[in-house]
Amino acid sequence: xxxxxxxxxxxxxxxxxxxxxxxxxxxxxxxxxxxxxxxxxxxxxxxxxxxxxxxxxxxxxxxxxxxxxxxxxxxxxxxxxxxxxxxxxxxxxxxxxxxxxxxxxxxxxxxxxxxxxxxxxxxxxxxxxxxxxxxxxxxxxxxxxxxxxxxxxxxxxxxxxxxxxxxxxxxxxxxxxxxxxxxxxxxxxxxxxxxxxxxxxxxxxxxxxxxxxxxxxxxxxxxxxxxxxxxxxxxxxxxxxxxxxxxxxx
Length: 250
Known about the structure:
Number of domains: 1
Strand content: 15-25%
Number of strands: 10
Radius of gyration: 22 Å
């Protein structure tokens, strides 16, 4: 008996079967690929943390961001990151997997008044100590995040920024090397106050030679994203201020 493919019931049944089949395939692929996805996420976090403290493969091209390759990053991470800490309820403890903490989830817990954890990464390079802090904030269209590396005088040694949906050629340029490089050498202090670093439109120091003004030059056409970066830095610094004070006052 031939099937009448012109009937509405056939269309509905066919669509339902296809939804089940495609859904099953996607669920299987998601489950099958999950270990690879999680591994790549771990590598990316390690690359970003190392990048902030200056462990990367950057060359002379001021626009190119070159990470430690994924097949080397675990070894380099172990080499340069000497300690991973977790701050929770005013207490600090060591945790070898602190880099896996999802800061977005921790900030959501904080907002609800729940217990939350803040990771800190202590690195060493060329006989110098780095304190690397994760950051999370809001750009123009979606989330922005990154890492800032500080020395014990609260001077920025490097940063890494990324985004989910900023405008290409404008706000998306926060992850360009020429923008991130401007933060190196800036102080987050204004006297003894934790000022952060503003992304200033109309900055009087466009070449970024002045390092004690708590600001860098803004990206053209990306005022809101730049403001988001500045707010993210300041809010993150305020979160970590009690811990940073223990470093600064040693």
